[in-house]
Amino acid sequence: MDHPLSPPEAVALVRPWRTATLLACAVAALELLLLIVLGGALIAKEAAAPSARPKARSSKPAAATEQQAAVLHRPKRVAVKAPPVAELSRSKVTVLVLNGNGRQGAAGAAADRLRRRGYRISAVTNAQRMDYARSLVMYRRGFDGEGVRLGRDLGISIVGPLDGLRPGQLHGAHVVVIVGP
C-alpha cells in the first residue's frame, strides 16, 4: 500500500459491511424464532391429537367391529426354520482346526477331541490372527447341519457360514474350527 487511508475514508468503507452484517443476523434470528414457534406448535398439536380425536360412530353392529379388531390384532404367523440336520456321518466330515488364541497346543488338543468323536482332521495350523475372543465354527455352503452338530459336540455356540477363508485354504475341509481362549 502506497499511502494509508485517512479516517473518514476508512469509516465510509467499513460502515456498509457492518450494517449489512447486522441486518443479516437480525433476519436469521427472526427466522430461527419463527421456526421454533412453528415447531413447538406442531409438536404440541401431535401430542394432543390422539386424545382430542372424537370417536367415530359406526353403523356396523358391535359384534362385527369386535370381530374385525380381533382379526387386526391377531399375531402373525412367522415361519420358523427347522434347525439344519447333518446329512454326513461324523466319520465323513473333514475338519480344519485353526489356533486363534496363540497358546501352543490349543488347536492340537481340539483336534484330538474331534478325532475321538469320529471326525476326520484335514489340518491343524494357526489362524491368520491370534486375537479371537471366543471359539467359533464355520461351515462351507451346504454343510450347515454338520457345522451346527460340530459346534454342539465341542460346546461352541458361535456357528456360521464360512467367512474370511477361501475354499482353497480349507485343505478340503467341510467345516472349520477356530480355537479361542
Explain this structure.
The chain is of the alpha/beta class. It contains four helices and five strands. The mean pLDDT is 80. The termini are far apart. It has a five-stranded mixed β-sheet, with helices on one face. The radius of gyration is 36 Å and the shape is elongated.
Helix content: 40-55%
Largest sheet: 5 strands, mixed
What is the strand tally? 5
Order of helices and strands: HHEHEEHEE
- Beta content comes to 5-15%
In brief, what are we looking at here?
By secondary structure, the protein is an alpha/beta fold. The chain has helices spanning 7-52, 62-72, 106-117, 144-154; strands spanning 94-99, 120-126, 136-139, 159-161, 175-179.
